[in-house]
Amino acid sequence: MLSISVNGQSHPIDDGQDLASLVKHHCERDSHIALVLNGEVVPRHRWEHIHLKHNDAVELFAAVAGG
């Protein structure tokens, strides 16, 4: 089991987990989510191809419309 940070909080994850499955686990809908991994924005089309490593830092941002 690995440990990563998601929005500043420590979370255990299984070895080999990708970004797409992490987003599914943490967000009801992923259509308006932006993801930053270790300070770098990761485009949605790459989420399934990037596997998390011990001590990775993930920030999830939800787009909110308003005025």
UniProtKB/TrEMBL annotation:
<dbReference type="InterPro" id="IPR010035">
    <property type="entry name" value="Thi_S"/>
</dbReference>
<dbReference type="InterPro" id="IPR016155">
    <property type="entry name" value="Mopterin_synth/thiamin_S_b"/>
</dbReference>
<dbReference type="Pfam" id="PF02597">
    <property type="entry name" value="ThiS"/>
</dbReference>
<dbReference type="InterPro" id="IPR003749">
    <property type="entry name" value="ThiS/MoaD-like"/>
</dbReference>
<protein>
    <submittedName>
        <fullName>Sulfur carrier protein ThiS</fullName>
    </submittedName>
</protein>
<dbReference type="InterPro" id="IPR012675">
    <property type="entry name" value="Beta-grasp_dom_sf"/>
</dbReference>
